[in-house]
Design goal:
- The protein is α/β, with parallel strands linked by helices.
- It has ten helices and 13 strands.
- The strands form three sheets. It has a seven-stranded parallel β-sheet, covered by helices on one side. The chain has a three-stranded antiparallel β-sheet with strand order 1-2-3, sandwiched between helices.
- Helix 8 crosses helix 9.
- The longest helix is centred in the N-terminal third of the chain and has 16 residues.
- The protein starts with a strand and ends with a strand.
């Protein structure tokens, strides 16, 4: 068995606004494993500024993996536990080596027989730009829309109010993602305003790492709270258990590239379900390689909720993709 990797810079079609600033490009690393004339491909989707493994020795660890690829998965997993995005790429490459073509988790989804329902994502920007995106999603038939908030709450609140005036909660599910954009006191006010508008949930209202404040908000809120960045960097199984026991969120958001791949996601799902905590899976600006693998994995979890998967359409220089979005339904294109 042999392995090699290469760095790749994805270019956004349009600068994309988040609470961390405007993104122009996205760095990623592609891992290829070969054995007996077959090849498996995976994406080590590091997210600079967010991934716990955004470290100076990242490429050094990738080189180490390529040099030690013949070792057992157990041996490698232990030594890659602080590099969740590298482990994520390794999991994909091994699965792809096993199944071939563009397959990672064969299912009715990869046979083109069943879709995944996703939410429509609205990027931050001026009120006109946000409304333009929303109109486009509604025309395409989305019943669940997620808006990034936390930059200009007054304008963002206005957009949500207008939406609710037009569409009841039964017609349109609205989710918001603050990316830790509010203080605890601001969050208390925002949570009530969101409840008045029957918002489904808010992701990460305050910055990660403020467990007591987050627990207090989760205990009192009338708008369900979903943990997102809070899960990043929590590697040990007991630490995961302790975090959910302490904060008691209504939901958790699973981004495989940031939380230890599919194995890490499985752990969080099992712990959440034991505690009646809801969950859904979200991509994190992966290329079509990682996105394809996440979509295939997501289908196997049989969640009834709209998932937060991208479509691969954000970049000008993405790899060829197999995902086909028809309205709010994401299909796998077998051709």
């Amino acid at each position: 068995m042999k392995a090699e990797y290469f760095r790749y810079l994805l270019q956004f079609k349009r600068p994309s606004g988040t609470s961390r600033g405007v993104l122009l490009d996205k760095e990623t690393f592609i891992l290829e494993i070969s054995e007996n004339g077959k090849k498996g491909i995976g994406e080590c989707a590091v997210f600079r500024g967010l991934s716990v493994d955004d470290r100076p020795d990242y490429e050094e660890k990738l080189e180490w993996l390529c040099e030690n690829i013949q070792h057992s998965p157990e041996f490698l997993k232990e030594r890659l536990k602080e590099f969740p995005s590298i482990w994520f790429g390794y999991e994909q490459a091994v699965l792809n080596l096993k199944y071939g073509k563009n397959l990672y988790f064969p299912s009715e989804f990869t046979e083109g027989k069943a879709p995944i329902i996703i939410n429509g994502l609205i990027w931050m920007g001026g009120i006109n730009y946000m409304e333009e995106q929303i109109q486009e999603k509604l025309e395409k038939g989305f019943h669940c829309i997620k808006l990034k908030i936390g930059v200009n709450w007054k304008s963002e609140h206005e957009v949500l109010q207008k939406l609710r005036e037009k569409y009841s909660k039964d017609k349109l599910e609205l989710r918001v993602d603050a990316n830790g954009g509010f203080t605890k006191e601001e969050a208390k006010i925002v949570l009530q305003q969101l409840a008045d508008l029957h918002i489904h949930s808010i992701e990460q209202p305050i910055k990660a790492g403020n467990g007591k404040d987050m627990a207090g908000l989760c205990a009192e809120t009338s708008t369900p709270i979903a943990l997102d960045e809070e899960l990043i960097g929590i590697i040990d199984f007991n630490e995961k258990k302790n975090l959910l026991n302490a904060i008691k969120p209504q939901y958790i958001i699973l981004k495989p590239a940031l939380i230890g791949g599919f194995a890490g996601s499985d752990e969080w799902i099992s712990l959440a379900e034991e505690r009646n905590i809801g969950w859904w899976i979200t991509s994190a600006l992966e290329s079509n390689i990682g996105l394809n693998a996440i979509a295939q994995y997501t289908f196997t979890k049989h969640s009834k909720m709209p998932q937060g998967l991208g479509t691969g359409g954000l970049f000008t220089n993405n790899f060829e993709g197999q995902l086909d979005l028809r309205g709010e339904r994401l299909f796998f294109n077998r051709e």
